[in-house]
Structures are given as structure tokens and as C-alpha cells.
Amino acid sequence: MSVTKSIMVKEKIRVLVITDYLGRKNINPIRSEAAQLLGAQISGEVDITVMCSPESILVDYYRNRGIHVIPQKIRKKVSLKSIRFIRKLVRDNSFQILHLFNSRAISNGTLAAIGLPVKVLVYRGQPGSLRRYDPISYLNALNPRVDKIICVSQAVEIYLRKQLWFNKDKAVVRRQRLWDRYSTGLKECFCSS
């Protein structure tokens, strides 16, 4: 009797990142974000697609490094056109994670994800401006559709945990190197039920 070993091919996690870099002529404030995305792509574990404004200073940077870029601007905090566009992207490309980096991306992305089989991961870089008693905060990181929040520091995590009503473990902070922090956040988001 011969034993056949099956080789399991590990499928890459398909991630749609939505962010915006408009009005930035200096790359320093956003270079860590770009490094995280590039690290994820280089790891071979993740297939990154970035949706950002066509005028973004990082469009060429990402394209030159093999990251697919969708040039699409989100013009409003809540835009039906953007919500429909994001929903179509997620469905047509079978994205598994929707990673949202800024306020417009979060509000439109979380609304677009309603009813879709996609995990929603958001980035939070500062404490403040979110209050659990403020309805507008539920268009942002407090939205129940958000599966995980990657916090840049422990201070942000502590602040967010105070604002979350139920699942306080949604807010996670990572102290590792940028790629390790991003990778761990993706895996936690992807592996949670």
C-alpha cells in the first residue's frame, strides 16, 4: 500500500486596504503604514490591494513594489457611490479582510461590509475623539461591524477599551516590529469567528 502525501498549498490572505494620502507632500507621517503594507506583501502570506486617491504620493511607490493599486477617491464621510464601489470590489475579488486606515475609509468601508463575508480591521493611531455615547463614533472604530482594531500604542488601546460597550478584546496593541504587528493583527482578525 502506497501512501500519498498531499502537499497543502497555503492560500494567501486577500486584503483590500482603503486609505488616503491626499494633502501630504512629506512621506514621513505615513511611511510606517507603507512599510507595513509592503512587509505584508513581501511576506508571501498576504495579497495586498490598496484603494486610495489617484493623486496619492504613494501610488507609484506601491505599484513599483508589486502592490495592486485601485485609484478611487472617497469624497465624503458617507458616500453611497463609494459604498457601492467597495462592496463590488469585495464581492468580485473575494477579499477576506478589509483594512481601513482613516475616517472616510472606516465609515464607508464598514457600511459596505454589512452582510458580506469579510473581516473588518481598522487602524487607530491616537486616543480621543471617539465616545461611546456619540452616535457619530459608530461610523468609525466603534462600529459593531469592526472585527479588530490595531492600536498604535497601549494608551490608544486603553482609551478604546473604555469606549467599547461589549467586546473589549476588539482593541489590540502590538509592540513588535511593524510587520509582526500588522501580521498578528491580520491573523487575529482572519482567525476569529
Question: What is the compact description of this entry?
Answer:
The protein contains six helices and seven strands. With 193 residues, it is of the alpha/beta class. It has helices at 31-43, 59-64, 80-93, 103-113, 154-163, 178-191, and strands at residues 13-18, 46-52, 68-71, 97-100, 119-124, 148-151, 171-173.
How would you describe this structure in keywords?
35% helix, Rossmann fold, 193 residues, alpha/beta, disordered N terminus, 7-stranded parallel sheet, 6 helices
Report what the structure shows.
The chain has 193 residues and is an alpha/beta fold. The protein has a single domain, classed as Glycogen Phosphorylase B (Rossmann fold, 3-Layer(aba) Sandwich). Helices cover 35% and strands 18% of the residues. The chain is built from 6 helices and 7 strands. The protein has a 7-stranded parallel sheet, with helices on both faces. Strand 1, helix 1 and strand 2 form a beta-alpha-beta unit. Helix 1 packs across helix 6 (178-191).
Secondary structure blueprint with pairings:
Blueprint: E1 13-18, H1 31-43, E2 46-52, H2 59-64, E3 68-71, H3 80-93, E4 97-100, H4 103-113, E5 119-124, E6 148-151, H5 154-163, E7 171-173, H6 178-191
